[in-house]
Amino acid sequence: MGQNVAVPFLLLIEDDDSIRTALELSLSRQGHKVATAATGEDGLKLLREQRPDLIVLDVMLPGIDGFEVCRRIRRTDQLPIILLTARSDDIDVVVGLESGADDYVVKPVQGRVLDARIRAVLRRGERESTDSATFGSLVIDRSAMTVTKNGEDLQLTPTELRLLLELSRRPGQALSRQQLLRLVWEHDYLGDSRLVDACVQRLRAKVEDVPSSPTLIRTVRGVGYRLDVPA
Amino acid sequence: MSGAARRAARAVPGAGPRWTSLRLRLVVVFALVALTAAVSASGIAYWLNREAVLTRTQDSALNDFRQEMQNRAAALPPRPTEEELRRTAEQMSSGGVGYGVVLLGERAKGKPIAGVSDPDRFTMDDVPQELRAAVNKRQEVTSNNAYPYHLFWQRTTRDGTPYLVGGTRIVGGGPTGYMFKSLEAERQDLNSLAWSLGIATALALIGSALLAQAAATTVLKPVHRLGEAARRLGEGELDTRLRVSGTDELAELSRTFNSAAESLQKKVADMSSREESSRRFVADMSHELRTPLTALTAVTEVLEEEEDSLDPMIAPAVKLVVSETRRLNTLVENLMEVTRFDAGTARLVLDDVDVADQVTACVDARAWLDAVELDAERGIMARLDPRRLDVILANLIGNALKHGGSPVRVSVRTADADLFIEVRDHGPGIPEDVLPHVFDRFYKASASRPRSEGSGLGLSIAMENALIHGGDITAANSPDGDGAVFVLRLPRDASRTADGRGEEREGDGDEGA
Q1: What is the pLDDT, as a whole number, of residue A88?
Q2: Residue in B352, B360, B381, B493 to test binding to A, most A beta-carbons within 10 Å
Q3: pLDDT tens across B257-273, in order?
Q4: Where in this chain does the record put each HAMP domain (chain B) (predicted)?
Q5: B24-36 pLDDT, tens per residue?
Q6: Which CATH superfamily is domain A9-129 in?
Q7: From chain B, which residues contact A within 8 Å (Cβ)?
Q8: Which of A84, B206, B217, B480 sits 20 to 30 Å CA-CA off B235?
Q9: pLDDT class of B151 with cuts at 50, 70, 90
Q10: Contact A111 B302 (CB under 8 A)
Q11: Contact residues on chain B for A212, CB-CB shorter than 8 A
Q12: What is the C-alpha to C-alpha distance for residues B425 and B372, in angstroms, rounded to an integer?
């Protein structure tokens, strides 16, 4: 990623004119550069043309919906996506997280909260240290912010990368979902633990040899997750 | 049918007494009827038979005796010897009928002699005094009574064996004769008859009991089915119907049950569809409200930030718009929460949390730390939905602060598999008539009370959130009269009690080996 410019460039995809206008106004005032699109198709086109740092994506869209937009972006791109959902209905959240979103906010959302989430997501791409670590065939280069498996570069979203970094910083030690929500998502004590579960699933799909029987990122029942050093 | 069997097994405590009453009553009534009929029939039959048998035996014996008396005893000389008497008695008794004979005569005036056919079996001592008296009594000879002496008889028993004793005098002088006939054979016949009749009665009794069982079964089976169906209907299985066969009263009852169930089902369906549509309306409405609210919320912040630079005449208006937008937000949020509970779409997102941390964070996040005393040890872990716990706590503590005043005391303790969080205030408490309604939606303690700042849904949402965990909340007044006490009970592992309502997401299976 590494595109941590001073003014984050966001793409807002939202079909309702009032909400789009209001959020654009609010986010601009928070110091973001905002491009907007009213449909998923327009949004995907804008994404290719303008290369934003992050996408704020409404779920309920005419034409292809937010989940589908999310899935299409993930096929080629690992940039952060925050879902804007009108419903906190659980099925929506689960589907959204499975389609590859990094975080979600529920409407009506306060501009400040959305801004905080955006900044937290963007911070995940920032490098912190300059060392590297090896876990079996997996090599995490913290200075280049890259992960390779068997010498091949893995395409990780900033959230997945940050989750892997946090786990790799404490190898063999179990981290609870709430801890991970604080460390990776910078959520308060009410963070949705499904964010962690969904992200772990996606990460396993990329780093594990057999994602359904993981050897690196293990579930610790009643606690959370830990990264194991393969024997 | 295994389900039905299980239900039936569960209903056993109620079925026991019911089984005895009707079935037992039927059996008893049938048995009584059968017993009465059989006993009276056999009684009459026995009695008639007994009389017929005895009379026949007796008549033949007595007739034979009379004949023998006339033929043999009357032929004796007026002063017979003892030997003659004995011989005659033996001759008389050797007839086909088989009785013993005693002949009494007089050898000389005042010198009675007796001739006994079989002294081992029968002597004069066996003849009852009354019979002797009757035989020796001279009858008045009238137009109705041609003879001074008659043949008398009596039934007696000796050593448990029944005997017929008869006696007479020869008219116009001659010996007095007594005959002694054993009725043992007749008694045996009658006894075996009585036995047969007794067995027949017993058989009738058993048969009637079996019949009663069968009758009870044919009646009780439909009754049982009806009861079972009524119970299922009561449990909410409104599509329960009975199979109607036949045209008897029970079939009619089944038909009535079916039509009642049908109309009930229709009514319930009508009601629930009406309720469903009104619920949908509320759900849709709150969804629709969200779109303008989202836009409003986003811009109110912009307005808020500009408040200081606004015209002092405009600033209060802006402030009002901002605060009312927030309130509208809360209201819609609560409305949505309630519709989710009503529609049954609310789900638990479970996580393992330290309860003390959650309580502290909840209080801290709302800047209540100064007004709340916490009595919670760290390290109490529970598996629950942290967001829902926060909603419950925020509502309970917020309510206590609003109505009870600070300090509010929150204490956490555990007992067995349950977690108890007590929220106690020091306010005036809750009036007794309000207490049962505190968890009702939009319940206002009195119409005159000012509109509360809350949505009127807070405690009801708290209760719903506790229920979905498999827990509950109880409201009471402190026994010492100092404020109200709300106790939240939650299972420490909601994934077990919430019975599949919670999302199970430990299914990664990587720890399976």
Answers
A1: 58
A2: B352
A3: 889 889 989 998 999 89
A4: 217-269
A5: 888 888 888 988 9
A6: Response regulator (3.40.50.2300)
A7: 287, 290-299, 301-302, 305, 329, 332, 336, 340, 345, 347, 349-353, 357-358, 361-362, 365, 381, 383, 386-387, 390, 503, 505-506, 508-511, 513
A8: B217
A9: confident
A10: yes
A11: 509-510
A12: 9
Which position has the higher pLDDT, A59 or B247? Answer: A59
A45 to chain B, any CB pair closer than 8 A? The answer is no
CB contact under 8 A, A89 and B345: yes
What distances in angstroms separate CA B37 from CA A128, B51, B161, one per listed residue? 107, 21, 31
Domain residue ranges in chain A: 9-129, 132-227
Note the pLDDT of residue A87.
63
Q: Which residue of B has its CA nearest to A21?
A: B295
- Is the pLDDT reported for residue A11 higher than 50? yes
How many residues are there in chain A? 231
The CATH number given to A132-227 is: 1.10.10.10
Q: Are B452 and B444 spatial neighbours (Cβ–Cβ below 8 Å)?
A: yes
Count CA atoms closer than 13 A to A22's CA, side-chain side.
Answer: 25
Average pLDDT over residues B82-97: 80
SS (H, E, C) B472-503: EEEEEECCCCCCEEEEEEEECEHHHHCCCCEC
Percentage helix, strand, coil for chain B under 3-state DSSP, each rounded to 5: 55, 15, 30
Cβ separation A214–B508 shorter than 8 A: yes
Say what the pLDDT of residue A193 is.
86
Read off the pTM: 0.62
Residue B308 is classified by DSSP as G
Give the side-chain half-sphere CA count within 13 A for B73: 34
Q: Is the pLDDT of residue B93 over 90?
A: no
